[in-house]
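Can you give me the bound-state structure? Components:
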Amino acid sequence: MRAVNLIRFAGAAVLALSWTTTNSLGQPSDLVIRGAQVLQCNTDMDLSSAVAVRDGHIVYVGETGQLDGWIGESTVVVDAEGNTLIPGLIDSHLHFAGLGHALQILDLNEAPSWAAIVEQVTRAARVLPPGTWIEGRGWHQSKFVTPADQQVDGYPHHRQLSAAVPDHPVLLTHASGHAVFANQAAMQRAGVKAETSDPLGGEILKDDQGMPLGVFRENAARMITRAMARDTRPRNQEDQLDRLRKEVQLAGQACLRYGITSVHDAGSSFATVDQLAQLAAEGQLPVRLYVMVREGPAALRARLPQARLAGVGDGFLTVRSVKVSIDGALGPHGAWLLRPYADLPQSSGLNTIPIDDLVEIAHLCRQHQWQLCVHAIGDRANREVLDAFESGLGDQVQSDHRWRIEHAQHLSVEDIPRFGRLGVIPAMQANHCTSDAIFVPRRLGERRSAEGAYVWRSLIDSGAIIPNGTDAPVESVDPRVSLFAAVTRQLGNGQQFYPEQCMTRREALLSYTLWPAQASFQESEVGSLEVGKRADFAMWDTNLLNCAPEEILDANVLRIWLGGQEIQLEQ
Ligand SMILES: [Zn+2]
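Here's the bound-state model for the whole set.
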């Protein structure tokens, strides 16, 4: 990308200037890290051994032996003892408040069966007053070792859970986030009956008697989540802000532990953005947030002209992008496909927003210079979004719009080169590839899986960059899983999922550093260790560029700095 070359050039100019300043005025730095293996994660992946920081920014990157002018009486000098220094990682797609919330509810990710989940919920119910909502997250019917009793189309029936937990409404979110499970009490609170019909872009699964099964896919899930929100939402703004503050703190700690200093939040309302702005101004955001606004066309029309935020609270909050979802996820058969599912021939998935709305939002984004990020998983969904982008961008297709498709998981062969050609950024979470691989060929058949599933190599070769991430709390926020998946495509059982589509090690590191910075227009601020950028970096005990692939999963963050300030990691 040309922008990056310009910045590298500007960086070199600043470097020369800094040397002059130091030598003539004797201005040392605040912090020096020396004796490190510094992976700069710039486009050339330059290596060095020392970094100096002043006023929260990097003022020198070079060799330990050339630090003389930078160390003064008040400079904090850290000897890295050969450990590795890399930029703070950037997770380019997760749900920040959702992650903080998920850390406070039942974690169903490790449950080996539906019976185990029923048991987990039953135990929680024992200590809660009747009528209290019980919430959990992470179940996945395709990952059960033993299938559920009374199952319909692979999904469990609510009877077992409703009998075990009759007095508490229960809402269990699918691992993908694209479906929820409700027991009888929750369906009652939501007013769902046998005759309740499917909402637009959603589906209430029914058993062979025509009774609701307990599974609510895509937009139908809102019936249950809204009922819960009505019962549990804090009544006043102060309590709402307190709740968000707690979620933000928990999510931030989870990120920092893994060396993540910036996050792209994949969808918050204007109301949440306003609260985040308040926290940012108070200096209470634990990591830097780049927030995508998720609202309908009417709210966007009203607020886009003046809602942009750039670097509130010393670069901690930036808002200049819009998030839209056009389909669901592959796991619950919600991804919108060009041809029917191999294992559900009566369905081609779900379209969750009218195309006219998407096109209108694209025009609004262009008019007000906002970035547009659209969730699209199925090949039909991706094609529709690429078409809408072309229509919305018009003659600006060639300009630096950096519009994104979130996930871009399953592509038709003809559409792959369109990403590079249109300058559309596929924001893909490598962990989804290795965690979904076990059911991808079942859903899509062999040919579609081979040609179009998580085609990182083909996309990069077509000229695209791929910002990486985790989609937490859909998956763990652990970046090592996505880095390992990116370079191996290796499943837990040792099998590799179409390994010809692997990223190189260098690309994988860029996918968590410089590429996400570019995908948020922030490559002059973060994403690499270069002069002029914010001093966000972490010291790791493992060199992620040249360690053995398996060692990536065991690598640990030793220390971490944000804006030049060391953050104490909580254990
Ligand atoms: Zn997401």
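A couple of observations. The longest helix spans residues 2-25. The domain at 91-96+237-525 is CATH 3.20.20.140 (TIM Barrel).
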